[in-house]
Amino acid sequence: MEEKLMIPKWVNKHNELYTAATRHPFTLSIRDGSVVFSAFKLWLGQDYIFVRAFVPFVASLLLKAWKESDDDSDVEVILGGIAALNDEISWFKREASKWSVSLSSIVPQKANLEYCRFLESITSPEVEYTVAVTAFWAIEAVYQESYAHCLSDGAKTPEELKETCQRWGNDGFGQYCHTLQNIANRRLEKSPEDIVLKAEAMVIRVLEYEVEFWNMSRGET
Ligand code: HMH
C-alpha cells in the first residue's frame, strides 16, 4: 500500500535508525531486567538537564504555533505538553531524591550538551513551525516507544523502574504522541518540497541525538 502520510513513510524509510533509537540496548536492558542501576541513575541525572533545556524549545514551538498554525487546537496541544513538562520536572526531583542522585551536581556529558545545543538552535524563528513540530513529535515518540516496550508483554522490568516506564509508556502519553504526529502529518501535507525535506532531515538528526543520548548510559560517550 502506498503511504500518503509523511511520518509513517519516514519511519519506514529510516527504520534502522528509528529502531536504534526505540530499541536501544539501554532500554532493552530495562525490559529484560539486566539493567545496572548506576546506568539508570546516570540517565536520570542527564535527562533532568535535558528536560530543563527542552522547556524553552517547546515554548518556542508554542509561539510558532500561535503565529503560524491554521488550527487553534495546536496551541492547546503544545500548552498541554508544557504543563506535562512542569509536572515532569517535579517528578525528576522526587525520583532523584529516591535514588540519592544530587541534581545540583550533575555535569552534562558531551552527548547531552550537544543535544541541548541543537535544541537551542531549533528555537530560532528561522526554523518553520512545520519543521519544529516534526522535531517535537520525534523527540517525544522515541521515549514513548522505548518505555512502552519496557511495559509490554513479556517485559521483566524491575519494580523500581516501572514508574519511570509508566511516565512515558502510558496510553495517555501514547495518545499525545499520536496527536503530535497528526499535527505534523497535516502540516507536511500542505508544505512545499523544501520544508518537507527539512523536516525529514530533522527527524534523522533527532533520532541520531537520541541514540547518542541513550549511549551515555552504556558508558560509551
Ligand atoms: C533525551 N528525549 C530525551 N529526554 C526526554 N525526556 C524525552 C526525549 C521525552 O520527553
Automatic annotation (TrEMBL):
Its EC number is 3.5.99.2. Keywords: Disulfide bond, Hydrolase, Thiamine biosynthesis. InterPro entries: Haem_Oase-like_multi-hlx (IPR016084), Thiaminase-2/PQQC (IPR004305), Thiamine_Salvage_TenA (IPR050967). One of its GO terms (molecular function) is thiaminase activity. It catalyses: N-formyl-4-amino-5-aminomethyl-2-methylpyrimidine + H2O = 4-amino-5-aminomethyl-2-methylpyrimidine + formate; 4-amino-5-aminomethyl-2-methylpyrimidine + H2O = 4-amino-5-hydroxymethyl-2-methylpyrimidine + NH4(+). One of its GO terms (cellular component) is cytosol. GO terms for biological process: thiamine biosynthetic process. It comes from the Eukaryota. It is an enzyme of class 3 (hydrolase). Pathway: Cofactor biosynthesis; thiamine diphosphate biosynthesis. Residues 13-218 form the Thiaminase-2/PQQC domain. Transmembrane segments: none annotated. Belongs to the thiaminase-2 family. PANTHER family: BIFUNCTIONAL TENA-E PROTEIN, BIFUNCTIONAL TH2 PROTEIN. This is aminopyrimidine aminohydrolase. It comes from Capsicum baccatum.
